[in-house]
Task: structure prediction
Amino acid sequence: APLLFVSLSKYSECIVRSFIITEIALCVKQSEIKKMTLSAMTAAAARVGGVAIKTPPSSQSCRTLVPFITARNIRTTSLKSSAVTSAGGESLVANASKNRGNSHDSNSGRKLAYGAAAAGLATSAAIVKYVRDEVGGTEGLVRTASFYSLAIPKYIEYRMHMWYGSPDDVWDDLHRETSQKGLDKMLELKGFYIKSGQICASNIGNAFPRIWQDTMSVLQDQCPHKDLDTVREIIESDMNKKMEEIFSSFDPEPIGAASIGQVHRAKLIDGRPVVVKIMYPEVERIFRGDVRTIKMFAQIAQPVHVPPLIEIEKQFMKEFDYTQESAQQIKVRENLMKAGLASGPNAICTVPKAYPELCTKRVLVMDELKGEKLAVGLRKDMERHAARAGLSPEQFRQEEEKKERELKNQGLVKRGPSSEEYDKYIRILDGKRKMENAGKAAYNYTLGWLPGKEWKDYELRDTLPINHAKMVDDLIYIHGHEVLVDGYFNGDPHPGNILLMGIEEGNPHLGLIDYGQVKELTNEERLLFCKLIIALADDDKKDIIRLMKQSGYESQNMNEDIIYRFAKVSYDEDNDELTEGKHIQVFMEDLEGQDPIIHLPQQYIMIGRASVMLRGLGHALHQSRSVAKIWRPIAVRVLEEEGLL
Result:
């Protein structure tokens, strides 16, 4: 693993450069050394080391050294040498002994030593600069090494099992072991690695096995958190006030903790209940290095992910200013309320009100939404289904997975009930619940009054099933409105950012939080994407290809079948027919191998990310969807209003 780490790391290139320069200095013939001035040696070393040195080499000395740097066809003399190179940037000392057949004069020896030393200094400076700027300094270097120590061996192990065609039970064992080690590593490193675990738990792109999803689910809102003293220091430092001057009460235990911060319940001085989001002090520094580390790994192991990572990196950097996030949250809320999606009788979601006057770079104050995290609600829902079937939650899960495998072996995919079927089922159960509650009431107000008798508990509305189909449809529709109508949307709709609200009152709807990764489209970009959505929904291959080219998609061969498949998987849907039964990762790698991508429509990458996230939730609930078909009516309405249809 350490050897692979060095060979795969970007800055190992700098280390290799230092050895090249040392070799040049030690292997040049005596006659050629005499032609080179010290300034020429220094400048040549600097060029290879990547550091600018002001002393210009002469044209003659450049002609002398270029063949050694480029062709490396050096006729090696028999020199005894020792070279010590420090990748940490401290020193490089190269000492050359005398040639067995020749005696060197002291002047040539000094040139040799100075040239090698200059090479070492230049290369060391390049290494230090790269580590500081791209890896995050010494701390980033240690984090990178820690990540690679697990990622590289496991990546190779997974690839080996793919090549061997290992059976399912072997894969399950590998998933269990690796996912737990991965979780431990993420909890150790925190930062962007927590975000990566949340992506896994969200089953983005239907790419993660159930074992991985379950293992990483704790990262949705149960990450390690800071103590109250740290929280107090951040609030009082940013607001220049004592906490007691802002809040009448403040819960010391966070209600949630994620990759960049944690959330506490509190009450303002006037008694309004709010939640307070606190950003960790060190998170911005380590996030930048972490993203670059993962991007570096992708460049070697999974280059197809590099273009999206570049755009995602830019979006993630927006998360480190809560004043900006509060403004984004306010705008999205206003847009959805204006459309009747977050207010009025037909509202299907709620976005909390932010208080910009109480927000700083590291503190965000907003209304508290009464509900439970989606992951918690779905787990309770599964437990209720298990109880109705007379099974434990684990037994119920195993039965469901067994059915799913049997269908898969037959070439079929398990599909959950439609929204209408769910509603019918819920009405039946609700009628049964009411009848049972009536019987319990009759008992409680008669026999229940007798001595020694206990009242029977009523079954509440929150015991009814969740309509998974409607929930997925509503989520996709809301984000379609944000993208196509407002051109202002949340690019990070993972389950940790979704609440289930109003269940006890019989008015179930969604609570949407966390607007750190909002993307804005220009009017032209928005309208072009509306056209692309209609083409995708209609499966108009010719128009899809035309619009993808117009949006800026460019590949080496411009293979039209690959352009079509890329657009479908990125923005619309993914299924075995489209991906030829391959895992989504393998499928995307195959597309890249057949026709390497030169340029992606950067403006649409976050739309693709949101689409893939929403579809991932759908897959997990057996509610697979074509996003384009749900968004098509919105796109048609927008283009008609613009006079473009």
